[in-house]
Amino acid sequence: MNINVDVNDFSQVIENDRTRIWHHLTQHKKFETVDPLLIIEGKGLRVWNQAGREHLDAVSGGVWTVNVGYGRERIANAVRDQLVKMNFFAGSMGTIPGANFAEMLIAKMPGMSRVYYSNSGSEANEKAYKIVRQISHQKHGGKKHKILYRERDYHGTTITALSSGGQQERKGMYGPFTPGFVEVPHCLEYRSQWGEVEDYGVRAANAIEEVILREGADTVGGLILEPVTAGGGVIVPPAGYWERVQEICAKYDIILIIDEVVCGMGRTGEWFGYQHYGIKPDIVTMAKGVASGYAAISCTVTTEALFEEFKSDPEEPMSYFRDISTFGGCTGGPAAAIENMRILEDENLLANTAKMGDYLVDKLEGLKGKYDMIGEVRGKGLFVGAELVADRETRDPVPESVTQAIVGDCMKNNAVVIGATNRSLPGLNNTLCLSPALIATKDDIDEIVSAIDEALGRVTAA
């Protein structure tokens, strides 16, 4: 598909962007000499910039969001129709799309029961933390308030979400942080903290128990984990890890929160990443792929047992969950989410994700045989990482500048947008991260891998 764009049509827009917009994660000094990039149209996996150049998007909107691809008229129409009929009412009341999507969602999550709406992944996790804290006060005199999080995991950008983030460079210059959050070790066997050990997954999970005992089990109320670590390097937990984590949470009466903000809605080949592992969470949070970016929505989903903790005599005014999310009352989010889920079902995209994910891993393993710079390929579904090393034997990571050079080469020479860990992990921002829309075909995968192949060739030759 080609579109005709006259760059002069966008001169004022570019100037407005340059002088008025504060972009995410961007050093704006560069815009004194170069124009900001505008993405003006999208269809399927393709987007076009202001110069009319086509890009294949291998990261679903740059942040793992557009799961069903661009240009979905049926989602846009569903949102439009709903907004005309009823666009918003506070979440203390119900709406038709809110009730209907909740029923659809719970049907995909055996063991879960209640949906609390908000509008971002950070906010969804904040709700989970508030649930843990309120239960601590209601049942434990406030003592069982600590929440554990894992090194290399990421749970959001607010100060409290950053307090639970295991990526130190993201946290730099934003402290002091909210107290009561405690880090546990990562579970990336490729970078084992204990050398070569049998049953690394069990060992990594046991490290969580060690932290609990150090802190005092009677002070730990919650544990939040990504099912597959996302921005921390696409880390798939090794065998035995999740089973042991579940045992530990049950043993110490710890609320298990699974952060599905990235992995949810089919990204890993199941509806949710935790469903690969037989986990029975107490809380599941989600955002990005819930509506594929067609409207803002996030969900904090709980078991009925947890929900029941907040039910009591109405004469007890402080016992209910005293929280509000203004834009959790927008109806566009659940309206978009309903159509998004229908597309995932109608087009059998979970099966496609599993199949194309395997194909992507195989193709990257082929590149690993060609380039010593690729140390390990790992992933689940259409969520795949390739860790880059300066020396495969010692596993010394390449500098972040090398990783970004490959990303930049793809964007410049191949017009393929790929992602990477960046400014997150001191000395370990060395993983290429790929997450194309779940509609990806073999041809799309071939184009992505070819771009990486050519970029690796140029960067290693430089």
CATH class of the largest domain: Alpha Beta
Tell me, what's the shape? globular
- The name of the CATH superfamily of the largest domain reads Type I PLP-dependent aspartate aminotransferase-like (Major domain)
Cα-based radius of gyration, to the nearest Å? 22 Å
User: How many strands, which pairing sense, and closed or not: the largest β-sheet?
Assistant: 7 strands, mixed
User: What's the SSE pattern?
Assistant: HEEEHHHEHEHHEHEHEEEHHHEEEHEEEH
Q: Tally of extended strands?
A: 16
Structural class: alpha/beta
- Helix fraction, binned, reads 25-40%
**Total of DSSP H or I helical runs spanning 4+ residues:** 14
* Spatial strand arrangement across the major sheet: 4-10-9-8-7-5-6
CATH architecture of the largest domain: 3-Layer(aba) Sandwich
Give the amount of beta strand, in percent. 15-25%
Counted up, domains total 2
Low-confidence stretches: none
Topology:
Elements: H1 11-20, E1 39-43, E2 46-49, E3 54-57, H2 60-64, H3 73-85, H4 96-107, E4 114-118, H5 121-140, E5 146-150, H6 159-163, H7 168-171, E6 181-184, H8 200-215, E7 220-225, H9 241-251, E8 255-259, E9 283-286, E10 298-302, H10 304-308, H11 332-346, H12 349-370, E11 374-379, E12 384-391, E13 396-397, H13 400-414, E14 416-417, E15 419-420, E16 431-434, H14 442-461
Q: What does this entry look like structurally?
A:
There is one protein chain. With 462 residues, this protein is an alpha/beta fold. It has 2 domains: 167 residues, Aspartate Aminotransferase, domain 1 (Alpha-Beta Complex), CATH 3.90.1150; 275 residues, 3-Layer(aba) Sandwich (Aspartate Aminotransferase, domain 2), CATH 3.40.640.10. The strands form 3 sheets. Strands 4-10-9-8-7-5-6 form a 7-stranded mixed β-sheet, sandwiched between helices. Strands 11, 12, 13, 15 and 16 form a 5-stranded antiparallel β-sheet that branches. A 4-stranded mixed β-sheet has the order 1-2-3-14. The mean pLDDT is 96.
